[in-house]
């Protein structure tokens, strides 16, 4: 469910006894995946658009999307030869909002999801 040091998803960790909760948080414990999730929170997007917006290689974006897909957080729809990725679980935004609140309470305010109108933006998410 999360990518290990060798770049592979470690779904085998769950089979080896790591709890699904730990695997979920591990899958979100990567800044690139958080940036992808934040972008997908604004709507579906193609890999080519993510590479341009995030300034990353196609292989890197694809690897992280595969991890998020393995976790059931992201899926895609094919349209011709293109794939459009989107979040599958709206509850993820609630989790990120709770994390923002907790980080703010501990003196580390950061924005992990697209802000509501008038809400200040700090940290990870781009205001556009």
Question: What's the helix and strand layout?
Answer:
Elements: H1 12-15, H2 20-27, H3 31-40, E1 45-46, H4 47-54, H5 58-70, E2 74-79, E3 82-87, H6 91-105
Antiparallel strand pairs: 1-3, 2-3
Tell me what you see in this structure.
The chain is mainly α and 128 residues long. The chain has a domain at 12-88: Orthogonal Bundle (Arc Repressor Mutant, subunit A). Helix content is 45%, strand content 11%. The chain is built from six helices and three strands. It has helices spanning 12-15, 20-27, 31-40, 47-54, 58-70, 91-105, and strands spanning 45-46, 74-79, 82-87. Strand 2 and strand 3 form a beta hairpin. The two termini are 29 Å apart. GO terms for molecular function: DNA binding; DNA-binding transcription factor activity. InterPro entries: ArsR-like_HTH, HTH_ArsR_DNA-bd_dom, Metal_resp_trans_reg, WH-like_DNA-bd_sf, WH_DNA-bd_sf. It holds the Pfam family HTH_5.
Q: Any key phrases for this structure?
A:
DNA-binding; ArsR-like_HTH; Arc Repressor Mutant, subunit A; single chain; 6 helices; globular; 128 residues; mainly alpha; 3 strands; three-stranded antiparallel beta sheet; transcription regulation
- Could you tell me the mean pLDDT? 81
Please identify the oligomeric state.
Answer: single chain
The CATH architecture category of the domain at 12-88 equals: Orthogonal Bundle
Instruction: Give the DSSP E fraction (strand runs of 2 or more residues).
Output: 5-15%
Run of helices and strands: HHHEHHEEH
* Biggest beta-sheet profile: 3 strands, antiparallel
Can you say what the CATH homologous superfamily of the domain at 12-88 is? Winged helix-like DNA-binding domain superfamily/Winged helix DNA-binding domain
Continuous helix count: 6
**Strand arrangement across the biggest beta sheet:** 1-3-2
Indicate the low-confidence ranges by residue numbers: none
Helix content: 40-55%
| CATH class value of the domain at 12-88 | Mainly Alpha
Q: Separation of termini?
A: 29 Å
């Amino acid at each position: 469910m999360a990518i290990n040091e060798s770049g592979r998803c470690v779904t085998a960790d769950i089979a080896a006894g790591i709890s699904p909760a730990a695997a979920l948080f591990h899958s979100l414990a990567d800044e690139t995946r958080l940036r992808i999730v934040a972008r997908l929170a604004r709507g579906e997007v193609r890999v080519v658009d993510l590479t341009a917006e995030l300034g990353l290689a196609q292989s890197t974006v694809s690897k992280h999307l595969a991890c998020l897909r393995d976790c059931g957080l992201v899926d895609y729809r094919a349209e011709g030869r293109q794939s459009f990725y989107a979040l599958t679980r709206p509850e993820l935004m609630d989790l990120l909002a709770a994390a923002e609140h907790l980080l703010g309470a501990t003196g580390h305010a950061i924005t992990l999801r697209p802000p509501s109108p008038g809400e200040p933006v700090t940290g990870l998410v781009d205001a556009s």
